[in-house]
Amino acid sequence: MPDIYDRMGDAMRWLYDRRIAAPPILNIERHFPNARLFTANWQAIRDEALAVRGKLERVPLFHEIMKAQKPISDNDGREWRMFVMKAYGAEIRGNLQSCPTMASILARCPEVLSASFSFLAPGKHVPVHRGPFRGVMRFHVGLAMPRTADGRLGATLWVNGTPHLLDNGDCLLWDDTYPHEVMNATDELRIALLLDVWRPNMPADMAVLSRLVVAGAWATVHLRKHFLPPSAVNVLQ
After folding, report:
1. 4 pLDDT exceeds 50?
2. Which is the CATH superfamily of the domain at 2-224?
3. What is the value of pTM for the model shown?
C-alpha cells in the first residue's frame, strides 16, 4: 500500500508541477486572506487545543488515521497525534463541538478543507516527505511552540531545505508538495493548528481535477466507518 500511495503521489505531483507554478512559501494576504480569522483568535484556539491535550491519550496517532503515513509517523518511537476537526470537507462533529471557536471560524471559511490540532511529542522527528496534491495549500499556526533550555525556539519546520521557527501565534502558508520535515528538539510537546486550504485561481482543468480528488477523499472519509477510533471523537466528554 505505501508503494501505491507513493506512486500515485509522484504522478499527481508530476501533473500539477506542469500546470501550476508555485513557490514553497506563499503570500498569505493573496492566497488566504481569511488567515487573519485564525491568527486574531489564536489564543482562544490554543485554549481549545490545551483542553484536548488534557486527554491526549484519547487522540489518535497520525498513522492510526492514515495508515499510509506510518513511515513518517511511527518512525522513531515518539508520538505524533492528530485531533481532526474537519477532513476533506467532512466535519468531525463530535470534535468540533468540543472546540466552539474553531467551529465558528471554520463555518466562515469554506475554503478550509481540513483542520487539525497537531501534537508532536518531545524529541519527535518527522522525516523528509512530500505531499501529493498541489490543489490545496498548508497553513500552520503555532499554538504551544516549545523552547530549549536556553530559551530558543526548538521546534523547526523545514520547507524545501529552509528552516522556519514559528512562535506562539505565528503562521506560515506553504506548498507541501515541496520536501519538508519537522523536528521537535525540546523536552516539551509542540502544538500547532494545521489547515488544508483550497488553492485559488487554478487553471480550469486543474480546478476540476482538484475537485474530483477532494470529492474522492470526502467519500472515503464517509465510507470508512473507522476513519477515527471511537475514542478520538468527543475527546472532552
Report:
1. no
2. B-lactam Antibiotic, Isopenicillin N Synthase; Chain (2.60.120.330)
3. 0.86
